[in-house]
Amino acid sequence: AEQLGAATPDGATVDRTANTVTFSVQEVHLTVLGAPPDGPDETFRVAGLTDPTVVVPAGAQVTVRFINADAGMEHDWLVTSARPPFGSMAMMGAPGGMGAATATLPEATSEAMPVSTLTFDAATPGHYTYLCSVPGHAAEGMYGTFLVTDAG
Asked: What is the DSSP letter of 64?
């Protein structure tokens, strides 16, 4: 899982200085680690970055493989149009996003790290937020920006 969380996805450019992963392809494949053991608590890791901005072109089909690497807590991953700061119940009454959400995964064990895969269309350009909707997690910083750029 650590190797997957550090790898640069196909069709993407990673800018470590700007903490950004930018895709130039219409078929986006993204691996997201939830709270990896060697990183800060309540964060995501994508392409070796902590809570990066993920940029995709409008109309891209996005497939996310979410891996819960946290041996102490459950986590999920979803895209919403809600913006920080977040309260302890980030998704209570929050606006929708792209209908993109994984199941809440149980904590990792010494035998396995739970995995959920979802695919969605990034049809509408705009600024979105990806976050963990488990109560209190987004408020603790478990979120990042998901930017859909206008292809025109």
From this structure: E
Instruction: Check the CA dihedral 44-49-52-58 and report its sign.
Output: negative
- CA dihedral angle for residue 98, residue 104, residue 108, residue 109, rounded to 10 degrees: -150
> d(Cα 18, Cα 25) in Å, to the nearest integer?
20
Q: Supply the pTM of this predicted model.
A: 0.93
Segment 52-78, tens digit of pLDDT = 999 999 999 999 999 999 999 999 999
Nearest to 6 by CA among 41, 70, 42, 52: 52
Reported as a single tens digit per residue, the pLDDT across 98-107 is 668 898 999 9
Q: Find out whether 27 and 11 touch, Cβ atoms under 8 Å.
A: yes
Element (H, E) at 3: helix 2-6
Q: Which tokens is 43 given?
A: 């964060």
DSSP per-residue letters across 94-147: ---EEEEEPPPBPPP-SS---EEEEEEEE-S-EEEEEE--STTTTTTT-EEEEE
